[in-house]
Design brief:
Strand content: 5-15%
Number of strands: 5
Radius of gyration: 18 Å
Distance between the termini: 24 Å
Helix content: 55-70%
Structural class: mainly alpha
Bound molecules: adenosine-5'-triphosphate, magnesium ion
Shape: globular
Order of helices and strands: EHEEEEHHHHHHH
Number of helices: 8
Strand order of the largest sheet: 1-3-4
């Protein structure tokens, strides 16, 4: 709860590409590592909740502020997020459907699955593409995600009813929030590589163990 000195992320919008990439990488880690290791997310990743700290006058890392929306997920759900990624990467429909079920979606039929795939392919797009790129990759950043969100929302209403799990809402909001920060920084990274390095040694059992130790250490487990 101490005061953290830092500057607004947007102050770095016109910094060198290397600096912006460095900050984006730090943001990625700050979000993904707690999730993939402990099943915990900062559920409100908007620009006001981060500042940049400097060392020797250079942007060094990210201060994470505002713990007002922390979510803890079961390890199995974290596994579902990784599984959905692997299913999309290998175009394995059974694996994809299984992942949606792990996420908690109910009432899935072939049409609904196609709609969810549209959404998932959009959210995971930078992670599925093994090259250095921006998140928007040539699309207008101002429009980013609007069309997809509209299409998916409308189609789910028509083809439903579908039970949307709460986990989905948090992950969606977080992914869009984080994507928004990357867009502002105009970061050019190989998101595929970043992500694959991060899930290389992923194990659901490990997440469960680490989460349980962490929660017990702060008295959050009954
Ligand atoms: N520990 C801290 N060190 C430095 N600045 C802080 C710290 N905590 C909060 N701030 C500043 O105060 C602002 C508001 O704090 P915080 O985000 O916790 O409140 P909030 O009510 O959730 O606001 P918002 O709805 O804008 O997210 C932050 O955006 C940040 O600029
Ligand atoms: Mg805040």
């Amino acid at each position: 709860m101490q005061w953290l000195e830092g500057r607004k992320i947007l102050d770095f919008k016109s910094s060198d590409q290397t600096v912006r990439n460095h900050l984006a990488t730090a943001m990625f880690r700050a979000w993904w590592h707690p999730f993939s290791r402990f099943g915990v997310i900062h559920g409100d990743p908007h620009l006001g909740n981060y500042t940049v700290f400097e060392e020797a006058g250079e942007a060094s890392g990210i201060n994470l502020l505002d713990y007002g929306c922390i979510r803890i997920f079961p390890a199995k759900f974290v596994g579902g997020v990784v599984d959905l990624y692997r299913g999309l990467l290998s175009n394995d429909r059974d694996r994809i459907v299984h992942a949606y079920e792990t996420w908690g979606f109910r009432g899935l039929n072939a049409e609904v699955i196609d709609i969810l795939n549209l959404w998932a392919r959009f959210i995971y797009a930078p992670l599925l593409d093994d090259r250095t790129r921006t998140v928007a990759d040539g699309l207008n950043p101002g429009e980013y995600g609007r069309k997809e969100a509209f299409t998916v929302h409308k189609a789910l209403k028509e083809k439903g009813p579908v039970t949307i799990p709460r986990e989905f809402v948090f992950m969606d909001r977080a992914a869009i929030g984080l994507g928004g920060v990357f867009l502002h920084l105009d970061a050019e990274l190989n998101f595929y590589r970043l992500f694959n390095e991060a899930i290389d040694s992923f194990s659901i059992d490990e997440v469960a163990k680490k989460q349980s130790v962490a929660l017990q250490s702060i008295g959050l487990v009954a």
